[in-house]
Design a protein that fits this description.
Layout lengths: L2 H21 L3 H5 L12 H4 L20 H11 L1 H4 L20 H6 L10 H4 L3 H11 L10 H4 L1
Length: 152
């Protein structure tokens, strides 16, 4: 048998031994000490609120609706304090929409990072993704408190 063949045979034996000795040994789980008061059994009901999958085409979005006039009131009360009255950003918080594309070249020549700071038009490429972010993460001071209709 060649050196290559011996090496391959040795590797196969080592792999077989390691799999049988370690990979399928679950006895450590059974012998682990029980710790009282830490953790809990997870239930489907506990997972459901976190198991959210919205797709780019709108599949799985929750039922809900909104209007421009209702949205204006919600934005004024919940969003403007950080994002500004017109989405321009306030108090160091980000603007809602980035610079016009025609300003990109001027920003680049000035050494300004005009890509990562472009706002929603750069980071949230479709409405379902934007709705998901708003519904889960806004407002900043109380994430996840907007109803589905308010997020829409």
């Amino acid at each position: 048998m060649s050196n290559w063949g011996l090496g391959l045979a040795a590797a196969a034996v080592a792999l077989t031994l390691s799999n049988s000795a370690f990979a399928f040994d679950t006895s450590a789980d059974k012998s682990a000490p029980k710790v009282s008061g830490i953790g809990m059994n997870i239930t489907d009901a506990a997972i459901k609120p976190w198991n959210i999958s919205y797709f780019y085409d709108g599949t799985n979005l929750p039922d809900g609706s909104g209007t421009v006039s209702a949205g204006e009131k919600i934005y004024s009360a919940q969003c403007a304090m950080c994002h500004g009255d017109f989405g321009e950003g306030a108090h160091g918080y980000p603007k809602m929409v980035g610079d016009p594309v025609d300003q990109f070249e001027a920003s680049a020549k000035a050494g300004v990072d005009a890509v990562s700071n472009r706002g929603l038009n750069n980071n949230w490429g479709n409405a379902p993704t934007l709705m998901d972010m708003i519904h889960r993460a806004m407002p900043f001071y109380a994430p996840g408190t907007l109803t589905t209709d308010e997020a829409y």
